[in-house]
Amino acid sequence: MSHVGKLIVIEGPDHVGRTLHARLLSARLKANGIATHTIGLARSDLMGGLVKSRTADIHQLNWRTRSLLYATDLHDQIKHEAEPLLDAGFVVVADRYTLTPRIREQVRGGDGDWIDSLYTNTPDPDAMIVLHAGPRRLLNRIMFGERLEALNHFEAGMDLALSTSITSSFLQYQKILRQKFQEAGKKADATLIPTRYTVEEVHDKIWESVMPVVEHMLQPIGGN
Amino acid sequence: MDGSGKSTQAKLLYHWLRAKGLPVFHTEWNSSKIVKEATKVGKNSRRLLPITFHMIHAADFADRWAQQIEPVLEIGGIVICDRYKYTAMARDGSRDVPQEVIEDTYSFAREPDLTLYFDVPVDVSFDRITKGRPKLKFYEAGLDMGWTTDPFESYRIFQGKVSEIYAGLVEDGRIVRLDAQGSVAEVQSRVRETFDKHIDLSSTQVIDQTDRLAQNLSESDIDWLSYSGGDGQ
Question: Among the CATH numbers 3.40.50.300, 3.20.20.80, 1.10.1040.10, 3.10.330.20, which is that of A6-132+190-217?
Answer without folding.
Answer: 3.40.50.300
